């Protein structure tokens, strides 16, 4: 009977090992790589990892290699469909071309979030705790 209960812990990642995965982190970074290992805390080891950034209809990749991700920083983990991966209607450009635009967009988003937090604190009494990127 117990074998019919699905995994609800990090044990559910066993089918994801040796597959190409997308990981979105709390700070907004999007990493792609092959999941090689994990532990009971959902700490992940990715091989051949790239960070992907987007702007408009373009994307760029920065190769990072072997990457260890602390489980508490993972917001989303999903398998990449290798058959449909090349169907993305985006143009790949050099990372250094897209990086300034990506940083500008991130700064604009941070300013907007700071303004929102300030209004919530001053007008609604919400506390400022958790402002270190804990938006999830």
TrEMBL record:
This is U6 snRNA-associated Sm-like protein LSm1. CDD domains: LSm1 (cd01728). Keywords: Cytoplasm, mRNA processing, Ribonucleoprotein, RNA-binding. InterPro entries: Lsm1, LSM_dom_sf, PTHR15588, Sm, Sm_dom_euk/arc. GO terms for cellular component: Lsm1-7-Pat1 complex; P-body; ribonucleoprotein complex. Belongs to the snRNP Sm proteins family. Component of the heptameric LSM1-LSM7 complex that forms a seven-membered ring structure with a donut shape. Residues 8-83 form the Sm domain. The lineage of its organism: Eukaryota, Fungi, Dikarya, Basidiomycota, Agaricomycotina. Component of the cytoplasmic LSM1-LSM7 complex which is involved in mRNA degradation. PANTHER family: LSM1 (PTHR15588), U6 SNRNA-ASSOCIATED SM-LIKE PROTEIN LSM1 (PTHR15588:SF8). It is found in: Cytoplasm; Cytoplasm, P-body. One of its GO terms (biological process) is deadenylation-dependent decapping of nuclear-transcribed mRNA. Gene3D superfamilies: 2.30.30.100. Coiled coil: none annotated. SMART domains: Sm (SM00651).
